[in-house]
Amino acid sequence: MNPQASPGPARQAPAWSLRQLLYFVTVAETGTITGAAELLVISPSAVASAVEKLEHALGVQLCVRRKAHGITLTAAGQDLLRRSRALLDHAGELAEVGGGTGGDVSGNLTLGCYHTLAPTCLPPLLSAFTAEHPRVAARFLEADQDSLQDGLASGEVDVAVLYDMQLRDDVAGLELFRTRPHVLLAAGHPLAGAGRVSLRDVAAEPFVLLDLPPSSRHAFSVFRHVGVEPAVRYRAAGLETVRALVGRGFGWSFLVQRPGTGTTYEGLGVAALEITDDVPDVRVLLARSRGARLSRAAEAFARTASAVFSPPG
Question: How far apart are CA 83 and CA 18, in angstroms?
């Protein structure tokens, strides 16, 4: 007789249902009972009843309902929202097993991406991933670094493409590629054709700052390391606005992200020059929450992202 493992403690069915969790998550994401009902194609009373029963089963208040102002999640509601998203994703994976879909990944995926990385990183990533996994409903969110890390922690974002700058302890990252900062000059600048430049050569000229953390903080840390203090003339929150101002001759800039074109939206020329000073490369990561288990869709996306940015050969 083969030895058998002793059974563990008897498990009990929860007092709540996956459907109630789905209704709750939809309410939280739409912000109103009515909006959730429209999305779920059921009556608002059915949605409200499901949320109330979920609160009763868990013994906590999940949201505060304010007439004409939608709902606001309590602290318990925020915590449950994060856990519910993960649980619903895992339930979907079990449905795939039961349906015999094998390795065909499906489900939902929310990809976050830092603002300045989005134009060059999102299109190739989404193109490759949707071609390989057409049954995954993928959506993306462009945001700043802090908001993306908040999204990873709350479960609103599954994975995020961001810079390896000022990451929190609860965020882990897979390196996708490295990029080197550069100086951007107007095409008519006397140094534009040099190809390489020291930060000291342009430090006294008007500077156009990409004022978008953590890019701005990174820039000033590099300046302190090199021993220069730029003369900030303009601050802009958008990469293309910075490039447009530089193209107009309003100053120079220090940038990490390098678009594949040497012209601004106006059609004016700009020149990207390598920096001769000791300036380190910047890592671009696919980040995740350390405390969360990736869904099959997120794991598949990580594999696709590594393949898209892997060096040729």
Answer: 12
Residue 158 exposed, middle or buried by CB count within 10 Å (0-12, 13-18, 19+) = buried
Q: Which tokens sit at 311?
A: 């060096």
pLDDT tens digit sequence for 274-283:
999 999 999 9
In terms of Cα–Cα distance, which of 249, 281, 243, 245 is closest to 262?
Answer: 243
d(CA 281, CA 257): 11
pLDDT tens, 134-170? 988 898 999 999 999 988 887 788 999 999 998 999 9
Angle formed at CA 80 by CA 78 and CA 290, multiple of 5 degrees: 85
Q: If we measure between CA atoms, which residue out of 286, 289, 294, 285 comes closest to residue 154?
A: 289
Q: Note the pTM of the prediction, 2 decimals.
A: 0.70
Contact 235, 211 (CB under 8 A): yes
**What is the per-residue burial (b if ≥16 Cβ within 10 Å, else e) of 86-112?**
bbbbeebbeebeeeeeeeebbbbbbbb
